[in-house]
Every structure is written in C-alpha cells, then in structure tokens.
Amino acid sequence: MFDKFKQLGQLKKMRDQALKIQKQLAQEKVEVSENGVRVVVAGDQKIKILEIDGSDNSRAVEVLNKAIKKSQQLAAKKLQSMSGGLTGLLQGS
C-alpha cells in the first residue's frame, strides 16, 4: 500500500517538473524569416507571430495553434493507449 503512495508522490514530482519545464519553454522564442514570411514560435510549440510580406496574420495564427493543439492531443491519446495510461504503472507493483 505504501508503495502506491510512494509512486503517486513520484508521479506528482515528475508532473511538477514537467510543468516547470513547460513554463520555461513557453518563455523561449524561435524566429524564422524567409522569402517575406516571418514566423515566431514559442518553445511550447505555439505560434506567436505570422507575418507575410509585413502583414499580420493573427487569424491564421489562431487556426494553426488549434490544429497544433489537436495534433498534440491525438499524439497524447495514442501514447496513452500504447502505455496503458497510469493504471499500468500503479498496478505494476
């Protein structure tokens, strides 16, 4: 029984570390400018700026970020089904 509590504590610690890294990544920026197109992406994979020939494309940014989020959710769902989720980890001992 105590092993399961220990595992939960370890999971919380890992989750907290992941959230901290995610916040740090959100502060990082990558900028690419090429052929009149400028894109700024945060380290958390969110598009911040999309300019084409100096024109702001905030509507496109919104749609692209929604598409990225959906693809991330799909990937997370696939990974969770492959790993059996946390239940396998908690029942493993």
Question: What can you tell me about this protein's structure?
Answer:
The protein has 93 residues and is of the alpha+beta class. The protein has one domain. The protein is built from three helices and four strands, in the order αββββαα. A four-stranded antiparallel β-sheet has the order 1-2-3-4. The chain is elongated and about 60 Å long. The relative contact order is 0.11.
Question: What topology does this entry show?
Answer:
Elements: H1 2-27, E1 29-34, E2 37-42, E3 47-52, E4 55-56, H2 58-83, H3 85-91
Antiparallel strand pairs: 1-2, 2-3, 3-4
Question: Measured on Cα atoms, how large is the radius of gyration?
Answer: 19 Å
Q: Could you say which structural class the secondary elements and strand pairing correspond to?
A: alpha+beta
Helix content: 55-70%
Report how far the terminal alpha carbons are from each other. Answer: 10 Å
**Stretches with pLDDT under 50, minimum 5 residues:** 88-93
> DSSP strand (E) fraction?
15-25%
Tell me the strand order in the biggest sheet. 1-2-3-4
Mean pLDDT: 85
Shape: elongated
User: Total domains, how many?
Assistant: 1
User: What is the β-strand count?
Assistant: 4
Order of helices and strands: HEEEEHH
Number of helices: 3
**Biggest beta sheet attributes:** 4 strands, antiparallel
